[in-house]
Amino acid sequence: MSRLSTPMPDPAHAPPNGAADHGPAIRLVQSSSLATLVQRELERMILAGDLPAGVKLTEASIAEQLGVSRGPVREAFRALEGSGLVRLEKNRGVYVRQIGIGEADEIYELRAVLDEFVGRRLAETATAAQVRELRQIVERMEKASARNDVDTYLAANLDFHDRLVELTGNGKLLHVYRRLVNELHLFRRTTLAQGGALPVSTREHRDIVDRIAAGQPAAAGRALYDHVMASRARMHKTYGNGATATSRRAARGR
């Protein structure tokens, strides 16, 4: 892990009276707290797999590695817990969250229900410009799929679904949805890497946009629901056919 790449502004080189343009790096620092910058860097590393599930994070080591004090790190940990990426255990420390197969199964089921609502809403409200924007994201996915570039595909995939939820205009839904997506991220990276999964997933996304563009609420909702459940099925294929039965037994035993 390296220190934060965004430099702090140097007063010795600041323009007089603050009148001149400070540049993008300084504007980012001015508009973001140090804790937010630490949070973003840790989030990036967790989602990229640089900080694997289950690893323990300590304030002192993270502060030293990022070149900041421990206070912003502590704040970043609390924010990351709220977004579902770490868990804070009293008297034990902070750990990158590790999602079991049973919990992932439940998240997929919940996401399917939320996505169905999103599809129905957008088929009724999406503008032509918004549909074009969604098609452009799908085109990025198609290009990544043709190269078998899983990382680029996954980034575009996440952008697509996040934008769908943003376009509903429901802030509470967006907050809940982003937490679910964070929790599923590592599972989804593995399942999308399966042979032949990228072209299939891309066709599903194209179909979703077609249904939204056609103004077909029931069909758009169903397309999104089926897409999420297909992702769930790919997860079970990756982790073994016994995963579903195991997760159901675990849920009943709680």
Question: Mind sketching the topology for me?
Answer:
Elements: H1 24-31, H2 34-48, E1 56-57, H3 59-66, H4 70-82, E2 86-89, E3 93-96, H5 101-125, H6 128-147, H7 150-167, H8 171-192, H9 197-213, H10 217-239, H11 243-253
Antiparallel strand pairs: 1-3, 2-3
Beta-strand segment tally: 3
How are the strands ordered across the major sheet?
Answer: 1-3-2
Level of helix content?
over 70%
Shape: elongated
CATH architecture level-2 label of the largest domain: Up-down Bundle
Domain count: the total is: 2
Protein described:
This protein has 254 residues and is mainly α. It has two domains: 11-96, Arc Repressor Mutant, subunit A (Orthogonal Bundle), CATH 1.10.10; 101-253, Up-down Bundle (Four Helix Bundle (Hemerythrin (Met), subunit A)), CATH 1.20.120.530. It is built from eleven helices and three strands; from the N terminus they run ααβααββααααααα. A three-stranded antiparallel sheet has the order 1-3-2. The longest helix has 25 residues, at 101-125. The chain is elongated and about 55 Å long. The two termini are 38 Å apart.
How would you summarize what this structure contains?
By secondary structure, this protein is mainly alpha-helical. 71% of the residues lie in helices and 4% in strands.
